[in-house]
UniProtKB/TrEMBL annotation, chain A:
InterPro entries: ABC_transp_permease (IPR001851). Keywords: Cell membrane, Membrane, Transmembrane, Transmembrane helix. Its main location: membrane. It is found in: Cell inner membrane. GO terms for molecular function: transmembrane transporter activity. This is ABC transporter permease. It holds the Pfam family BPD_transp_2. It is a multi-pass membrane protein. GO terms for cellular component: plasma membrane. The keyword Zinc does not apply. It comes from Neptunomonas marina.
UniProtKB/TrEMBL annotation, chain C:
GO terms for cellular component: plasma membrane. Pfam families: BPD_transp_2 (PF02653). The lineage of its organism: Bacteria, Pseudomonadati, Pseudomonadota, Gammaproteobacteria, Oceanospirillales. It is a multi-pass membrane protein. InterPro entries: ABC_transp_permease. Keywords: Cell membrane, Membrane, Transmembrane, Transmembrane helix. The chain crosses the membrane at residues 21-40, 60-81, 93-109, 115-138, 150-169, 198-216, 245-262, 282-309, 321-344. GO terms for molecular function: transmembrane transporter activity. It is found in: Cell inner membrane. This is ABC transporter permease.
Amino acid sequence: MDIDLITNVLYAMIRTGTPLLIVALGEMVCEKSGVLNLGQEGMMLMGAVIGFIATLLSGNVWLGFICAMLAGVLMSQLFAVIALGLSANQVATGLALTIFGTGLSAFIGSDYVGKPIDGLGVIAIPVLSDIPIIGKMLFAQDLIVYFSFGLFAAVYWFFRSSRTGLVVKAVGENPHAANAIGLPVMRTRYLAVAFGGAMAGLAGGYLSLAYTPLWAENMTAGRGWIALALVVFATWRAERVLLGAYLFGLASILHLVAQGLGFAVSPNLLAMLPYIATILVLVMLSRNSGRSKLYTPASLGKPFHASS
Amino acid sequence: MTTSLAGDMPNQPPRLVMKSITKQYPGCLANDAVDLEIAGGEIHALLGENGAGKSTLMKIIYGVVKPDSGEVYWEGERVQIKDPAHARRLGVGMVFQHFSLFETLTITENIALALGDEAGDLKALADKIRTVSERYGMALNPDRHVHSLSVGERQRVEIVRCLVQDIKLLILDEPTSVLTPQEVDTLFITLRRLAEEGCSILFISHKLNEVKALCHHATILRGGRLSGDCIPAQESPASMARMMVGDETPITMDYEKVLGSDVFLQVRGLTRISEDPFGVDLKGIDLDVHAGEIVGIAGVAGNGQEELLAALSGEDTVENHDAIHFPCGPVGHLCPEKRRRKGLAFVPEERLGRGAVPDMSLKENALLTGFLTGLVSKRGMIDHQGTESFAQKIINQFKVKTPGSETHAKSLSGGNLQKFIIGREIMQKPQLLIAAHPTWGVDIGAATAIHQALIELRNQGAAILVVSEDIDELFLISDRLCAICDGELSPLKPTPETSLEEVGQWMTGVFDTATHANSTS
Amino acid sequence: MLVKLEPRGQHSRKMAYLSPVLAGVLTLITSGIFFFLQGLDPIHALKTMLYTPISDTYGLAEWCVKAAPILLCAIGLAVVFKAQVWNIGAEGQLLIGGLLASSVAVNVIEAEGIWVLPAILLAGVIGGALWALLAAWLKTHFNANEILTTIMLNYIALNLLVFSVHGPLKDPNGFNFPESAMFGDASLMPVLIEDTRVHAGILFALFAVAAIWVLLSRSFMGFQIKVLGLDHSAARLAGFKSKRLVWVTMLISGGLAGLAGAGEVTGPLGQLVPQISPGYGYAAIIVAFLGRLHPVGILLASLLMALIYMGGEMAQIELNMPVAITGLFQGLLLFYLLACDVLINFRVTLPWLSSQKTTAEQVN
């Protein structure tokens, strides 16, 4: 393997891992507050299509990203109203959100399939980007990738050192106790879900505005679900989400490596790799359920109704 | 001490006055025109059975529940307590029965959460926690995670959480039900000290001896209404009990102690590592239960009771088959169904969500463990009529109050559901009945009925094992007694030969009480 | 707050039946408004979608063709969902069922005899069941969350199918189209009514509905499945073997989905193509919820869902709408259902109404 190939694979690994990292960090915050939102895929698709249309109509890619995040937030609040406000089953509501988002995005985007836009450009940081191998990977990326580095640091700090992070953890572990000592359980959960929605929208927007950049029906191809598995794999810890996202990024671009090394394998078979990797990861991790119990938000997925 | 009240400060208004508080829940009048008055520095007892309205009244004071009508005065001023934060600002602190703590956080983090923005710097808070806890004789290491604490220590955290603020009224909800007798003594010292410093204390309980020993004044509720007001020191436990339960219910009973015949359940060297990171490992448990006797196991919650019960019921199997023996042979490897076929019946601690399926009818819940009594055909079909009549029989024989067998388990009161579950198990004519906490949260009438049913089953020759946190109950019904602590079992002694103090020491892990007594004397 | 929820003591049976109807009505109203905003006459548009497709015999027959796979998947899901095992993989199980049935069928194109079709269908059932059992094994042995594994298996199944029609199963005489050869006559489902496409698959589906009904309401196995779903600890206490129940339910659900896939390739399609299913496996999830996991409810909900599929196609032709409108309808329906289900366990009250009253009383 030559240096160029390694450099490019590492570069592509980060790019491919970035949407996963963003959506998984959002979902992690959401799950830490005790809410399991299986609608990531639907929110990502809505972010992707709305961001794409906004960019196409306005010509401004940043407006596109803002609209993508807003779309994600709106979708997440739809989930929140039903799953939190009306205490419906979170699994079913999340599934509904994905089915709804898939349908709605395909409907809205049907006139925009295959249209070209100017995607988000790369900003190479002088000097640093010239470092061999890791220079291109870390310092010659687009702004959203840099943002994702910052997002990781922020989430890491949030749960490690901030008081609000403590509140989120407490609400996710024992909402009844949190309510009894006067913490705002519902508000915390609504906000956490909204944050998850914003990040899912942004990740979707990244796919249609920077990664591809174009809009196609169902273009997220299960990334929302993989992100959910990633959060489990990471046992709700930001540093492991980061690691997992890039590992999945790598699994998704193995066909590049295969081509680079001159192997001819059916693209359909290689396309299965991320999904197989997801299953393997779930298997390896879930085996020891005792250990992961220490980190799992104890009330995850359980409805809370302050009845007393 | 009792005379140091009101007299000192004649012009001071009482700390808390509640007038004619009423709270209606759907289908239940929880508080009906209740009055309560607590002076500064007073230890006031709120007495009543489960469902008498104590919890509702206490939640109203703490701002968790809003009354439908009535007036609340705080140090002479009319207030409407909006929420717990408001209550805390006034100086009300609360120690919950089911602790409101977060397992995965440290003590400091837990307390910081409750304090909100006043918590300030965590290091300074940790120092304050250390100082306060030592001052009141409740030493705590603020850096420890809550999941590593014993039940008694968790209660200290709850109390310290109130004390790091300026506190004028401390509410404790059934604080002694989770403690060993020795821990209760320590708690009372702390509470008396607090009261001497001017803090009022509202002590919610149904244990009359404790109220008599600790409290200056008592308010008694029955069925949501005020049924009495007294000075405990001037009353006998029996007279207070009358005010609690009314005239109709028989209160105490004395049961004859007997010796069993042949051994039915034999446990030898039962050792099991818990799969749960928060669980307790069982360490070399030896235990015999004879046919025709009741053996009681005392202990503070979380000392291996759940693990022992799961191993005995077959929900957890053990690798060493011989560790658990029925007369027919080793059963340690058998699943619950096979053990039931060999004569076991089991009453779990959780009534709803284990003993009975909340969203299923009583009829279906009768089938849950009753399916072995010929209610399922060889082809796997359910005998619906047989199930119905089995359910009816349980309801009639054990006087379960319910509209019918189609009623969902979750709409029954705790006592009625427990009678149904115990009835379901007893109707299967078990040779061994294992019951966990058979009367917690049950009113006195139902508890008496349950005790009588157990005694009757014993007299018919069944072996019975009762695990309970209520020592009084164990002394009442057990023929032999022991205690569990950190996964180990104390010696097993006939009830008349042991004492409350000895069992209390067993509960804290001091098993060799004879030598211990010698060495301390 | 504008509305307040008060828990009912016991859940309302009336509301449990009423809620899907209410959800259907709300979906109709919303889509009417939606069509109006698109500049269409809402009555006409709804009629085009929901009545025109079934207004003649051929349409009614097509209705059965569409309903059969949805019904087979959904009735299987009723069993797993009762056990609270979240098999989201009916789609993948259907695809693998179709794939395995096809790989048998392309090898017996010339064969005659009545054993041919049963063998192909059996292959489909086995394919679907194995795909589901894979997820069951991952769940019981490795504790891997079945929602995620079944979804991943859906994507893998789709890629396997696409790989197969581009590779091993491609028709050598098919001008390089990604399709298998047309199946032999003995491999095709018998047509029930002449000049239509309605085939024996709907009979299999109806039989499955009856069998599952008996399983869930009469048998002890069904009782155990229900207990496992409602209360895991109670099932453990009673000694029900939860792992075995997970396997059995997944086997039933996967097998039926596999049969649905086999029915599609041997029925209306007659060959293996990349698009066996327009998301029947996902639609079946909605159907299962909408039908309250009850066989009769699921039968009705399947018919509704099949109609929505046909309506989507009709809307594309007649109203110039994207066919994705089907997904939109499905999502809306499920959302409304979940929202309406709140009424089963809660009573909705309007606190501003009663508080106005109390202030008025105080003034007096």
